Amino acid sequence: MKILVRLLFIFILFSSAFSVFANAKMKVVFINPGSESTNDSGDFWPNVNRFMMAAAEDLNVQLTSLHADRNHILMKQLVTDAIASKPDYLILVNEKEMLPYMLEQLAGTNIKVFLLLNKFSRAQQKTLPKSLSSKVIGCLSPNNQEVGEQLADALIARASKLNKPSLNMYALLGDYNTPAARERQVGLTRALKKHPHVTLIDSTVANWSESKAFDKTYGVLSKHPADIVWAANDAMAFGAIAALKQLAQAENVVVGGINWDVHAKGLMTDVSFGGHVTLGAKAILMLNDYHFYPKKASSMSQRVAIFESSDSPVRDRFVTLVREQQFSQIDFSRFTVAAEHPLEFNLTNLVNTTH
Length: 355
What we know:
By secondary structure, this protein is an alpha/beta fold. The protein has helices at 2-23, 44-59, 72-84, 99-104, 122-127, 130-133, 144-159, 179-194, 210-221, 234-246, 279-292, 315-323, 347-352, and strands at 27-32, 62-67, 89-92, 112-116, 136-142, 167-173, 198-205, 228-231, 254-258, 271-274, 301-304, 308-309.
């Protein structure tokens, strides 16, 4: 009888331990360089967060987001708060090349780091000590050079309908240091080399800001009118459109940006490329597969072709989903390797795969 009781006790003990393990949540902290709600730099970072939270809910991931409000110094300080919560993984963005300073604080911890949207710059890869770089288990980013070039090509094609022998372009850049901003500018330069009839009359950094883009566009284009405005994000494009309206030039200028943002006052770009706002959700999926299904997990370092133009057939449905905040309707469990037939992560599948 004692043996039976002992065996029963052992069975209950192991059953309980297995149950706790099976229900254990993977803990992730995301240091979001942007704000929690829509602001002067648009709604990109708030929407990145909303996609991530929806994915985390479907996968039973404990996700905490800390917001730096575009303050790169605060972004560094938030790492201390993240460490205190003892996450399994920390998702970081190399905004304004702050990554080395954030990684320094992780020395002596077992926290693994995943990079989202902005990876190491080449200079950082050469100089970062292995003790810090080894903490990074992967990176997920879009092809920013390609989208910078695609945006310029699309704007030039639209402006060519003006039947002018030459075209003038004005460019609004994101910032000086963030890899995505520099890569998009490289794409712009690449496009201009293909179109010698297009002259870049000026380019200026507007720090992803609608109001700064308004001021700078108004100042430049009041003296030197342009046919095209290329902007590294939609918020700056909206600022340019507002300035052009005040200058009574809006009807004659083609304006484009990146993000597929929805403007509160109904301002609309002529061209926009978007889709990368979903990559935070893909990062959660990748970490989930890495953590629970390592033998099935895909590569942890990926650069994906996620961008689609505003001419994409999926754009209207996607924008409606974002505008009405229907993130929880997407069934993200269909995209994990644990699914019976895992779906490819793309915009079409995201808008079609619902609970």
